Amino acid sequence: xxxxxxxxxxxxxxxxxxxxxxxxxxxxxAPEAERAARLSDATIADLDATxxxxxxxxxxxxxxxxxxxxxxxxxxxxxxxxxxxxxxxWAGALTDWIPAxxxxxxxxxxxxxxxxxxxxxxxxxxxxxxxRAKQVQGGxxxxxxxxxxxxxxxxxxxxxxxxxxxxxxxxxxxxxxVPRDELTFLDDWHVAGMRGTGSVSVTLKxxxxxxxxxxxxxxxxxxxxxxxxGLAGSLWKAPSLGWSFSLMAxxxxxxxxxxxxxxxxxxxxxxxxxTTYKNQLEAPLTHLMLAEVHSKIQSATxxxxxxxxxxxxxxxxxxxxxxxxxxxxxxxxARVLVETAYAAKWCAEAIELLQRNSGSTAIMDFEPIxxxxxxxxxxxxxxxxxxEALSENYGRLMAGIRxxxxxxxxTLDRFSPVP
Length: 419
What we know:
Blueprint: H1 8-36, H2 41-49, H3 68-81, H4 83-95, H5 97-100, H6 104-111, E1 120-123, E2 131-136, E3 139-144, E4 158-167, E5 170-179, E6 183-185, E7 202-204, E8 208-212, E9 216-218, H7 219-224, H8 240-265, H9 284-319, H10 326-356, H11 368-380, H12 387-398
Parallel strand pairs: 1-4
Antiparallel strand pairs: 2-3, 3-8, 4-5, 5-9, 6-7
């Protein structure tokens, strides 16, 4: 529990200091986490002790409640040491706004008790969800599944499942809060990168599950902040796309920073094959490569920090009762998405340059650079980061043309149902 008398800047400094202290251990444990396809409970406990899982938790419940810009620094720092750890911290932070937007009872359930690890996981919050929700007297009947990519569900007391319900105007998405003892976790996380995240699929233990009414919330109400949470901070008025995707870019940036630091550690005395250079760091071709790597990472960093700052500003405006114009909000959402996709692309390209110039030993399991190479590419393949589609939508807005209308996690009109 964070000291409520401290400033967010002081909380941030303390968290970063603790993350840096355990960073070498996170990197050392990463190969075993990859083999196990999940972080160890000990690693989760170590991360919890830094308060990294509280960066987006309400101050009213002892959370750090950092600004989005400050959260970005934490996700970046954790990711620098291990991409899978960064992904789990990111998932925990970006999912905290779901219970915060679901009402006081869900808030109390999620953040009230003592817990080690992320407080809530999320899964399948998109129209392709196989989950179904039917409203009945006093609650919902949940069926279907499995729910895929349930990052942090292995350690969280609740997982929020995306379920499709039928309404008078057509189908709509419901976020359903389900306790972990009602779920079965599948052994299906066999992937090329981000292996330690344990982002398994989940199913219900029975064929159906009754969930009380307050645990099933129309997702449009969550994303629009229509339900009064009773939380005081402007963070809870910040646009969720700006919040989620600024932090996602932070993962790419941190992984790339870690790969660069590792590259600079390795080459002492390393020759460059096919040349007369006996020390790689003395070669002009290395200097040119490093400048390009720096420029890609720095471009991603500056762009992402600007988006995080703007997300905080928009939250403050909304909290003051003077929200930004809807047209600007649509443009901002489109911008954050496309710039996050570019940040992921540039950081992955930077790491590929480092990997290509690291020699054949850089393909070995023990070498962090090869893991960074795979993890960074996985981020570019996230379902929300289709660079070409996001670029077209933003370009359409720039040209004064409406973007494509669709339902999903990246819809620019925020979860409007498609009949």
